[in-house]
Amino acid sequence: MHNQQFDPNKLIVPAGTRVRIVLRNLDSTPNEFESYDLSREVIVPGHSEVAIYVGPLNPGNYQIFNDYNLAMQGSIVAKPGFKNRD
Questions:
Q1: Which of 74, 79, 62 is nearest to 17 (CA)?
Q2: Strand 19-25, strand 48-54: pairing
Q3: How many CA atoms lie within 13 A of 36 on its CB side?
Q4: C-beta of residue 52 within 8 angstroms of C-beta of residue 42
Q5: What is the pLDDT of residue 86?
Q6: Is 4 left (phi over 0), alpha (psi -120 to 50) or beta?
Q7: Rounded distance, CA 65 to CA 36, Å?
Q8: pTM > 0.85
Q9: Which domains does the chain have, with CATH numbers?
Q10: N or C: less crowded end of the chain, CB within 10 Å?
């Protein structure tokens, strides 16, 4: 998160796998990671990070947003057969 945007604003993850997502807020103000689709709501203070776990997810598109700034929107896309290149 920086400049009041999710970066990347679309995160691709493998379907059917539990995934750890590290939310880093590079802004000085708090941001929120919220998703009705994922049943998650996490406040990330300015200049800090928080780790969350999601899944295993069915293939599809899961919307995320920041309740503090509704223009800050993004998505998590669960794809079958996707391999993370870490």
A1: 79
A2: antiparallel
A3: 2
A4: yes
A5: 52
A6: left
A7: 9
A8: yes
A9: 10-79 (2.60.40.420)
A10: C
The first and second tokens of residue 68, run together, are: 């503090």
Cβ contact 14:38 at 8 Å: no
Rg (alpha carbons) of the chain, rounded to whole number: 12
Compute the Cα dihedral for 75, 18, 41, 32 and give only its sign.
negative
For the beta carbon of residue 20, count every other beta carbon within 10 angstroms.
10
DSSP 5: B
Question: What pLDDT, in 10s, does the model give residues 7-54?
Answer: 999 999 999 999 999 999 999 999 999 999 999 999 999 999 999 999
**Three-class SS of residue 56?**
coil
**Confidence (pLDDT) at 75:** 98
Q: Which two tokens stand for residue 32?
A: 């929120």
